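Page 42, continued from yesterday. The earlier attempt failed because a stray header line got pasted into the input along with the sequence. Redoing it now with the clean sequence only.
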Amino acid sequence: MKTISAKPGSVERMWYVVDLAGQTVGRAATQIATILRGKHKPMFTPHVDTGDFIIAINADKVRWTGRKIEEKRYYHHTGYPGGLKEFSIPRMMEEKPGEVIRTAVRRMLPKNSLGRKLLKKFKVYAGPDHPHQAQKPQPLELKK
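This time it went through. C-alpha cells are written below.
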C-alpha cells in the first residue's frame, strides 16, 4: 500500500464563516488553526497547504478566561534601540479587535513560509458584516 501525498493543485478548498461572539480566544484559535492547516481532511500533508478559508466575524465580542484581561501583555519591537512596545488586551481590543484573534491563530501555525501562506487565508472582521458573500461561505460551529 502506497502513501498518498496531496498535490497543491488537487486540493479542494471550502470557505467557512465563524461567529466569534462569546467564544473563548484560545479555544477558537486552536480550531481555526486546525482548519487553516487542513488537519481535518483525510488528505492532510504537512508540507502542502491543504486547508480551507476562514472568515471570522464579531472579533470584538470574544471572551477571555481567568485574569488575562488584567495580566496578559502583547509585545512588539520596532527594531530600534529602546523600541519595545507593550500593549494590554483592552488597548488592543479598542484599537484593533481583530488583531487579537489573528495573533493567537498566527502563533499556532508553522513558523515558516507555509505558515505565512496559511495566514493569508484567514480573514477577520470586528463586526457581523464581511465582503466575501460571493464565495458562499458555509457556517462553521466551533466547539465551546
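Notes: The longest strand covers residues 15-19.
Reminder to self: strip header lines before submitting.
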